[in-house]
Each structure stands twice: as C-alpha cells, then as structure tokens.
Amino acid sequence: MVYKEMPCEGCMERHNMSSDATMEFLLLGFSELLCLRFLLFLIFLIVHLVTLAGNMMVFVAVVMEPSRPPMLFFLCQLSVIELCYNLVIVPKALLGLMVVDGSTISFIGCAAQMHLFVALGGAECFLLVAMSYDRYVAICQPLHYMAVMSEAFCLRLAVVSCLGAFAVALGLTVAVFRLPFCQSHRINHFFCDVPAVLHLACTQSYAPELPLLAACVLLLLLLLLLILTSYVCIAVALLHVTSSVGRGKAFSTCVSHLAITLLHYGCATFIYIRPKSSYSPAQDKVVSLVYTNITPLLYPLIYSLRNKEIRRILRKMLRRKKIVQLNWDTIRIVMCVCGKF
User: Which of the pair, 97 or 184, is modelled with greater confidence?
Assistant: First the structure.
C-alpha cells in the first residue's frame, strides 16, 4: 500500500477542485531524461508495434481456428485485454516523450485512463484465475473436463471477469477523483496511475487510501490465493502420478500460465502493495514500464513457444500464406505469358 509522506501545500476546497471537469493534469513522464527522450521514443514505439503485432497474431490465429478448446478461448480474451491495455497507456506516453515539459491530460481523460487501466488489469487478474481453474479441471478431473469447461461456462467466466473488474475499477476511480487536489497538478508519471494521482490529494487522513487497499485485497491477494489453491490441488494430484513422463507433460501445460501469473502479480504487487518507506516515483515509473510495455510483449512470445495448439495454428497460417503467395505468383506468370501472345 502506498501512502503519502506529507500533505501537499496550496490545497483548494473539494467543490472547487475535484468536481471541476475543466481541470487539467500535467504528466511529467520522463522529463528528467530530456537527452534520452528520442531514444526512449524509438524504443517505446518499436516495443509498442511489436506488442500489437504479437497479440493481434495470437488473436487472429485463435479466431480462425474452428474448434477452440477453453484454453485457446482464454488466450484470445487475454490478447484482446493486452491490446486494449497497451493502447490505453502507450500512445499518451509516446506523446509525452515528444513534449519537453510533459503532456497535459484533462480531468475526465485522466479519470478515464485510470479506470480503463485498472479495469483491464483487474480483468486480467480474473482471467488468470479462470485459466488456473481450467488447468485444475484438465489435470485433476480429466474425464469431466469437456462437461465442466463447456463453451457456455467459459463465456460466463469471461463476462464475469470483465464485469467484476470494471465494477471494482469504477468504484476505485470515483473514490480517487472525489478527493480535493492540490494546486500543483504535476503527476510524476507517464500515465494516471492510482498512487501517482493519490499523491496529489490534499488530505492528512488515511481514508483516501482505503479504496485502493480494498481493490488490492480483492484483485491481487484474494485472486492470487485462488490461483495458488488451484496449483496446490494440481501439485497434490501430480504426486499420485507414477509416470515421470506423465507428470512432466502435465506440468508443462501449466508453465506458460505460471510465468504470466508471476509477471503480472509480481509487478502489480510491487507497485500497489508495499510499505510506506519504499515509495519512490522513479521506481514506480521503471516498474510501470515493465508492467505496461514488456509483459504485454512477452505474453504472446511465451504462449507461442509453450502452447502446442498455438504453434500448430501459426504453422497452419504460414502454410496458407505460402499457398496463397504461390498461387498468386502462378497467376502473374500466366498473365505475363498470355500477354506476350
């Protein structure tokens, strides 16, 4: 949990500040690294484009597959979340790198960005729980897998994940933006993250931190506990598997999900659940860079390398592309030959 060290100076009354939709914030971004902003812009742009291409590739591959098992369905939803996640944060951050003194964002825009960021991150937390349950049923109840993980049930899990996350994000965003803010609207971050905006709130009590604490308990601690419970049950079930080959095959199906879970919850826990003395805007920005740029880039790479079905679909897509290219080359040759005659 992040707490402010001291109340800020020059505060205005709540009805004059937090309800003023015309108010603007200044996102400082990486203004302290002016000499590196062009290099950072180029790196962020390349990572952003590769991330979009990778997640779009996974999304298209799954959509084009006529028979989609539950894990592919969840991967498709994960790719959509990562695409939206990246588009909510990165374009504004790239714009901030082009401006020397930071970029401005309106009160409504800042609230919308925070809500979408928390909602998409929360939806990913819920989705990781659904994926862990899918692995639990596949390994611990293989005979009932198709009956339990039906298409309708997976769709309900996806809808509940999105609605639950958006509800939690809406409550947190409303609680944050009802606070009175200081006259200084300089957010020492490259997007409207919750701790950075709370740092501008003019209050001496810890009450404004409670909605963030509640959201962290629900989205991080409680959901992580559910994931760990699933894997404890999986580990117990694997202890009864006598074949080392079977045990290794079952565990390999969980490696991708475990890697993504560690990346997502590790970064989120570092930012939102930590002692007061360790708060640092500079560290927040570095970890947020990993959280919003690197992990969405790694997700399609992890699943492309570890998931056999994804690899099979991608190979099928490449074969189709080669066939289409070959047919098109043949047509062009025939047209050229006919043109000579």
Answer: 97
